[in-house]
Amino acid sequence: MINFEEELKKFHPSLEIEEAEDAIYNQDLTDMADLLVSLVKEDKETKSDNQ
Question: How far apart are CA 32 and CA 8, in angstroms?
Fold first, then answer.
């Protein structure tokens, strides 16, 4: 029978997962809200330049 407590003590996270986690969290990801804010800002600048 499997002793889950003993198996949990043996567990060590994979280094690859930790490295991937760091890369994901350290990226500056643009989401839809950022894109919309950028588009609205560009639109306002374009309209003010044309007047």
Answer: 40
**Cα 33 to Cα 20: distance, rounded to the nearest angstrom:** 25
Rg, Å, the chain Cα set: 24
With CA atoms as reference, report the closest residue to 18 among 8, 10, 26, 9: 26
pTM (two decimals): 0.43
- Distance, in Å, from the CA atom of 22 to the CA atom of 27, rounded to the nearest integer, reads 9
**Residue found by looking up tokens 């588009």 in the block:** 39
CA distances from 40 to 21, 47, 48 (A): 32, 11, 12
Render pLDDT for 8-41 as a digit per residue (tens, 0 to 9). 999 887 778 878 888 778 777 778 888 999 999 9
